[in-house]
Specification:
Blueprint lengths: L5 E6 L2 E6 L11 H14 L6 E6 L4 E3 L4 H6 L3 H19 L5 E5 L2 E3 L1 H8 L2 E5 L5 E3 L13 H9 L1 H10 L2 E3 H7 L4 E3 L1 H14 L8 H4 L7 H15 L7 H10 L4 H12 L2 H21 L7 E5 L3 H12 L3 E5 L3 H19 L2 H10 E3 L11 E4 L5 H14 L5 E4 L6 H5 L8 E6 L8 E6 L5 H13 L3 E6 L6 H17 L4 H11 L5 H8 L1 H12 L8 H8 L35 H19 L5 H12 L8 H8 L1 H15 L13 H4 L7
Parallel strand pairs: 2-3, 3-5, 4-6, 5-7, 6-8, 7-10, 11-12, 11-14, 12-13, 14-15, 15-16, 17-18
Antiparallel strand pairs: 1-2, 8-9, 16-17
The structure holds 1,4-dihydronicotinamide adenine dinucleotide (NAI).
């Protein structure tokens, strides 16, 4: 029988099963792949074999998990539970083979992929930094469903198993070995031999030592759950993110495979999981766009070594690019070098890798790197004239094929481009602060920007493992434009006398990673003020007086020790005001969120981005907008546009014209606009 995804070979009493999913760059476990595996297992089950080796035919990894795209098509709990049962059944065939099995793992081994490996008698992993194992299901609002919740605790111990499932973190081959998740690690050339010898040796099956299984003792389990509860609560509100709570519940009850499947079925069709899957797929789509073309960039020259320039340069060097970093101020450059060293040391650990990264990172006071650069990124002060002057000079020194980029937050590309003979080579590469944490980069298209320049910019962004999002050059682009009315509304609430803790609490309870007041303090009130001023005219937005006053008094937020909150010398927030947020008569959450949604609609109507998905991707990956809601557009769809525009009209009557519903609310086709499928 021929197989589409699996290859079956026999040699010296052993069977070798190689997974190479047809038509996919990475192995994922679709129902078809699982069914095929089921057939093969029933076929080899009756053969007189000494063992079976399961491995991947893809260079990038073992198995990335279940096929997330199939989740979207499943609409009822029973169907979703059946999907889990299918995986459980096929993996039980592996576990029930009359001879031992070994999973040989390289690259990623995630979710359902790791559960497959858990069903094997042994696991071996390739010893290199690309190997990552984990159960990241919780990040999609679900938990392992192919018997992972049942098989993992006895193998690694109860607390490590809970940690892996609750955080969804991935571990290296070495850590996996230490945890007992795998039996052996070996370099590529020894993998096959190690697998064969494990099978032939009939080594005993691994089990966590008794003291690691002790927390699973029935009388102790409720106590452990009580101890873990505060930690889980800090990360996941049970109404917003139920999956970690389910993991605790399954563990406490020593759930069976059937109960696991049932619970997975319920979660998979829940709103949270639907939205987290939406967010995940949006991220995958942006990644795909970042991979579409070669970029031809080896040397990056960054000008301006301040907050953003230094971080962009450090990040690019960390990702393997040769980077020269220019600043007019030698002291600032020296600070950037120190920062780079500390960053590489914390991330790369291995002293040789740190040295190599430092060798790629070249401080450059006089701009010597310009003549060799393939890409120049400007990140100097946010002022038109200095930027124009700079680009005028840069254009004369760089090669004709060098791509030019600006990190401006608010100056139209066309304005900067006036300084260039050839403005078609200028793009915006708008990074977010802090660069190492925020995945999004807005790829800004000016009226004259040429498509090949945009393609290279996207490809470079993908190459440094950031997500490129196309936006039009218009005030605030997408993310700052949508965020700013929300921040300004928060500042207005302060002016009206609402307690800052109350305001921030309203936002975090809604699901934002941080309240707007704390966010403004973190970004810097001077930066907020300059973006607000920049947007005030085109968006008819007035800038609150208290924001101007704080900046004039030198209270710039966390960096100056005081903004709306007070901070100690290490930037930690001091307790200010009451412990509990006092209740407010004013509809705080509604005012904050509706301004944000109204602006999201305006961006869609004006074509700042081409489709509704881009709004969700931008806000979730650029600001951390409540992922369980799937982004602003998903949230709008769940509430209904009519209701929102009525609420806005009501708020406009009470609080003023800034709440006037955007004309886009009466054009429902805007929300239905989805990206064109790739060719
Ligand atoms: P910054 O003030 O921290 O750094 C600017 C640096 O540029 C300074 O070190 C200064 O010495 C240097 N510089 C100024 N003129 C120069 C010249 N002609 N040649 C060489 N070096 C020069 O500014 P920051 O915050 O890093 O912002 C830089 C750019 O990034 C701005 O366009 C800003 O709008 C944008 N941006 C800032 C974000 C933030 O959160 N701070 C976020 C995203 C974009």
């Amino acid at each position: 029988m021929t197989h589409q995804h699996w290859r079956l070979d026999y040699f010296s009493d052993l069977a070798m099963l190689t997974l190479d999913v047809a038509g996919q760059s990475a192995n994922v476990l679709s129902q078809e792949v699982l069914n095929e595996l089921g057939h093969i297992l029933s076929e080899i089950d009756t053969k007189p074999l000494q063992g079976v080796i399961i491995r991947s035919g893809k260079t990038n990894g073992f198995i990335a998990g279940a096929d997330v795209r199939e989740f979207v098509a499943i609409n009822d709990t029973a169907r979703a539970a059946e999907l889990a049962q299918l995986g459980q059944h096929v993996f039980s065939l592996i576990a029930g083979l009359p001879f031992p099995s070994v999973a040989v793992i390289h690259g990623f081994c995630l979710g359902g992929g790791l559960e497959l490996a858990l069903a094997c008698t042994y696991r071996i992993a390739r010893e290199d930094s690309a190997t990552r194992l984990g159960l990241p299901e919780v990040r999609l609002g679900i938990h392992p469903g192919f018997a992972g919740t049942v098989r993992l605790p006895p193998l690694v111990g109860d607390l490590p198993a809970l940690d892996l499932m609750l955080t969804g973190r991935t571990v290296s081959a070495r850590e996996a070995r230490r945890l007992g998740l795998i039996d052996e690690i070996a370099p590529e050339r020894h993998l096959q031999h190690a697998a064969e010898s494990l099978l032939k040796r009939h080594a005993p099956r691994r089990r966590a030592p008794w003291y690691h299984r002790l927390p699973g003792w029935k009388p102790l389990r409720p106590l452990i759950v009580r101890l873990l509860t505060p930690r889980v609560r800090r990360k996941a509100h049970p109404d917003q993110y139920p999956a970690p709570w389910r993991i605790l519940e399954l563990w406490r009850n020593r759930a069976t495979e059937e109960q696991e499947a049932q619970s997975l079925g319920e979660l998979l069709v829940s709103r949270t999981s639907r939205n987290l899957v939406h967010v995940f797929l949006l991220g995958e789509e942006l990644k795909r766009r970042g991979k579409a073309r070669p970029h031809g960039i080896e040397h990056v020259h960054v000008i301006g070594a301040g907050v953003m320039g230094a971080d962009i340069a450090i990040w690019a060097a960390r990702q393997g690019f040769r980077v020269s970093l220019q600043d007019q101020n030698a002291e600032i450059l020296a600070r950037a070098v120190k920062k780079a060293h500390a960053f590489f040391k914390s991330k790369l650990r291995d002293p040789r890798a740190v040295q190599e990264a430092m060798d790629r990172f070249i401080p450059d006071l006089d701009g010597q790197g310009l003549s060799r650069a393939d890409l120049v990124i400007e990140a100097i002060v946010e002022k038109i004239e200095p930027k124009r002057e700079l680009f005028h000079g840069v254009e004369q020194k760089v090669r004709p094929q060098t791509l030019l980029a600006t990190n401006t937050s608010s100056i139209p590309l066309e304005v900067i481009g006036q300084a260039l003979k050839d403005p078609s080579r200028l793009v915006g590469l708008h990074f977010f602060n802090p660069v190492a944490k925020m995945q999004l980069v807005e790829i800004v298209r000016g009226a004259q920007t040429a498509e090949p320049a945009l393609e290279r910019a996207r490809a470079f962004t993908g190459a440094i493992e950031r997500l490129p999002l196309d936006v039009k050059s218009s005030p605030g682009f997408l993310v700052n434009r949508i965020l700013m009315p929300y921040l300004i509304e928060a500042v207005k609430l302060v002016e009206e006398g609402v307690n800052i803790v109350t305001i921030d609490r309203a936002a975090t309870e809604f699901g934002m990673p941080m309240g707007p007041i704390a966010l403004a303090d973190t970004v810097g009130l001077d930066i907020c003020l300059s973006v607000a001023q920049e947007l005030s005219e085109p968006l008819h937005m007035d800038v609150p007086e208290n924001l101007r006053r704080l900046v004039a008094e030198g209270h710039l937020g966390r960096k100056s020790g005081r903004g709306f909150y007070a901070y100690d010398s290490r930037g930690r927030r001091q307790q200010s005001g009451p412990d509990k947020a006092p209740a407010s008569e004013v509809p705080v959450t509604e005012r904050l969120i509706l301004r944000l949604l109204n602006e999201a609609m305006a961006c869609l109507r004006e074509g700042v981005v081409t489709d509704a998905d881009a709004v969700d991707a931008g806000m979730v990956y650029g600001t951390g907008f409540a992922p369980f809601l799937g982004g602003p557009v998903r949230y709008i769809e769940s509430l209904g546009e009519t209701g929102i525009s009525h609420s806005l009209a009501r708020l406009a009557q009470e609080y003023g014209a800034r709440f006037a519903p955007d004309p886009g609310w009466s054009q429902p086709e805007l929300l239905a606009r989805r990206p064109q499928p790739p060719n």
